[in-house]
Amino acid sequence: MNKTSTIKIFNYQLYDKILLLLLISSTFLFPKIIIDPLFPAFRIEDILLIPITIRLIQLKPTINFHIKLIALFGIYIFMVIIINGRIGCIRDYFEICKLLKLVILILFLSLPQYVEYAKKLFLPIFIVLIVFNVFQYFNLFDFNTTIEKLYSPEHHLKYFGLNSDFTVSTKRLLGTMGNPNTNGILFLFFIVQFLPLKNDDSFWKYLLYLSAVFICIHTQSRTAFIILSLIFIAHSILEYTLVKKHKMLFITFLVILFADFYSDNLLYLGSLRGTKVKIADDMELTTTNHSLQTRFEIWKHLYGMIQQKPLLGHAPYKEYFYENHLYSENEYILMVWRYGIIGLAFFVVMILYPAYKAYKEKSTSNNIKLLAFTTCILFTALTNNPLSEPRVLVMYAIMAGLFYAETAGKEVKNLS
Q1: 20 to 30 Å CA-CA from 8: which of 1, 213, 312, 409?
Q2: All residues at 6 or more sequence positions from 29 whose CB lies less than 8 Å from its CB, including other chains
Q3: What residues does 279 pair with on adjacent strands?
């Protein structure tokens, strides 16, 4: 190999790493870009899709069954759009573009030569996120009116730490996601990333894991709290030797957490105790919690429309939700409403397939992480729309891509 070709290879490696750095850091740290209120906002990740696609054309990565499945789902959505007579509705095609974006990102993140570099980015990003969230939570140096306003919608900042009648309430961390529920998913991602296992059980790894748990709790997302509780309890039981090894750190964490709870910083979680769900004689769900009651009413409305087109759905039809100020707050109901039972099957299989491969694969460090994060997505989809959020979609692509990259790297080693 001559000197010129060596320089050329080095430049491509550096270029790919810069793309990877920008992709991951912009997903977790940067706000959306608004040039003009009349034009839709966009994110840096969207711009990066162009150079990433060009690199994929050059590299010609392997197209696995998961990628083909996502492409097939996109074709099916196009068919549903045609059947519903919405071929001229531009907004509907954005849902196909989301799947195309997922394909491009999984393929790029599946490159085995960059898997270790990608993993190294998580620690510095997490440290920046901790600092950001602390500043946002305590509004240090008027942080919420100078910086956080770039990330959060006005109503989240207006009622931060307040009830709708402006009486003092608990604070729900908004962070770089600008939304407490999405912020909860973000820290679930890092809980999974820093999950201490027997082959990686250092003090600092355990500290990072507990830090992510602590911050996730302060987003006060009900669904995230239930998921992280399951992960925390299961991990503490299955990896009890790690708890014993770091028992002082574990005990300190529990003391701080309980002190924080009883200091009324976590009143929101305490309100769960007063939430009751009843089933009336007509099988209508009612609850003492206003947020849940609103969800039940919307789900009942959407279910009535699902019965009209149960097989193929109504197409994306995004303007119906905009014009009626509806938020489905359940990804499964949204999928059935849009694409029918067939579309829901596509969606669930698309999410579960990498987890199935991870379950069968016993020798990569990312299989447990992918299984855990897939579980997080499936649970949060019950009361939110996680994969409708562009940044959560990238998080899922990161998890799936790194798993495929590590698996491919192992196969290359076995052949050599």
Answers
A1: 409
A2: 125, 128, 129, 132, 176
A3: 285
Q: What is the pLDDT of residues 310-330, one digit of tens each?
A: 999 999 999 999 888 888 989
Q: Does the pLDDT value for residue 24 go beyond 50? A: yes
CB-based contacts of 342, cutoff 8 Å, min separation 6: 76, 311, 312
Q: In the beta sheet, which residues pair with residue 33?
A: 42
Tens digits of per-residue pLDDT, 328-359? 989 999 999 999 999 999 999 999 999 999 98
Alpha carbon of 71 to those of 75, 103, 321, 348: distances in Å? 6, 8, 26, 14
The rounded distance, in Å, linking the Cα atoms of 138 and 133 is: 9
What's the DSSP call for residue 30?
P
- Do 28 and 129 touch, CB atoms closer than 8 A? yes
Q: Which helix (H) or strand (E) holds 2?
A: none
- Contact (CB, 8 A) for 92 and 389: no
* CB-CB contact of 105 with 394 (8 Å): yes
**What pTM does this model have?**
0.88
* 148 closest CA partner among 164, 162, 134: 134
